[in-house]
Amino acid sequence: MFENFDAQILARIQFAFTISFHIIFPAFSIGLASYLAVLEGLYLWKKDKVYLELFDFWKTIFAVAFGMGVVSGIVMSYQFGTNWSVFSDKAGPVIGPLMGYEVLTAFFLEAGFLGVMLFGRQKVGPGLHFFATAMVAIGTLISATWILSVNSWMQTPDGFAINEVGQFVPVDWWKIVFNPSFPYRLTHMVIAAYLTTAFVVGAVGAWHLLRGTAPRRAGVMFSMAMWMAAIVAPIQIAAGDAHGLNTLEHQPVKVMAMEGHFDSHPGGAPLILFGIPNTEEKRIDYAIQIPKLSSLILKHDLNAPLDGLDTVPDDKEPPVAIVFWSFRVMVAIGFAMLGVGLFSLWCRWKGTLLQNHWLHRVALVMGPSGFVAVLAGWITTEVGRQPYTVYGHLLTADSISPIAAPAVAASLIAFIVVYFVVFGAGTFYILRLMARLPRDPMPDLDDGPIRSSGITPAAQPGHHGGKHAH
């Protein structure tokens, strides 16, 4: 099956496969943890049981998604040693501590409060339970912060020196952690996670509204999701634009591939909307483009010159076709999300948000769109970084372990089989949970203490203090 691939290509495919499975679960759990905190906060504030019912409904789904995210993430760590040991040796002094900080801060915080959030409402009281939920949400954000810091350093390395044996060694930890692309990429990723969760919640709400089941609970979750889409989608587009300008400054070759600019444009570059990249002839076939708009977007000047891939050696170019199309998929979904948000505002203004079944059908179709956008964004980022693992300093070809292709192929096939079975079953279970009605919540502490040692017998009629009343 993989007999024509060398070890490097197979190792890259294996890491791409595992991270593609992994990233969809943190992207969902980051947003869902914050959503759970908001639901519980609204319940404590308004004392409306519908928020508690929705909390219990989404809590179970979060637990399954969180567990699959943890398991799929562990596998990637092992690949640093099995397939990318040279990279681990050279970059380990920088990325090792950062990943260790993620465990010491975020993972320990999540692990410490997750059990309380999932099982402890009847034991710790409403205030402490809400605190535990908030800590889990904060833990997911801290985890994203450290992981994005690691990945951003690989994109825009700073604050390091290279020692006599070729290792990257830290010189300034502030510059390492807060490297040039980190703030933009963290903002873009966290907002993407929130939008991903919003459209999943909106799709579930739309599903139940279309079926006519649990109309109030479905209406509340759908309304909250549409507020998120309407408010956050425009912010994400602005954040993506800022991220693109930062990428142009620090990784211009990636932007050339994203834009499909094989040739330099000294008098203003066009914005290529669609086309077919022809890497052999170094052009975009059947291009549909708007003259000079790319220069306006990237340089804020219609006539600003933009370099093309003709200024880059062929062996330093990323795979243009993959980057070109993944970028367009991400952008198209972003504007589709904006359209849904605007449609929901119009329906809300007309008073038909919960009655307009066309909006509900669109929201249902858009349910998985966030996952597709996140995957497309990561493909753009990671493939666009090639041929480097540490941009501009360490080639991917020089990062791989000294292993044979058949060994990587065997483990890749095993991953494909196991992942589709295990995570396919987990995803199917999550979908089944989403299709069910939100259950009634367990008794709250506000209703009285739980008697764990048994049920206290009720007083017998006509008896007071053990004596007959006459």
Automatic annotation (TrEMBL):
MF terms in GO: electron transfer activity; heme binding; metal ion binding; oxidoreductase activity, acting on diphenols and related substances as donors, oxygen as acceptor
GO biological-process terms attached to the record: aerobic electron transport chain
Protein's membrane topology: Multi-pass membrane protein
Cell compartments where the protein resides: Cell inner membrane; Cell membrane
Keyword NAD included in the entry's annotation: no
Record bears the keyword Cytoplasm: no
Any single Gene Ontology cellular-component annotation: cytochrome complex
Family that this chain belongs to: Belongs to the cytochrome ubiquinol oxidase subunit 1 family.
Protein name, UniProt field: Cytochrome ubiquinol oxidase subunit I
Organism this protein belongs to: Rhizobium glycinendophyticum
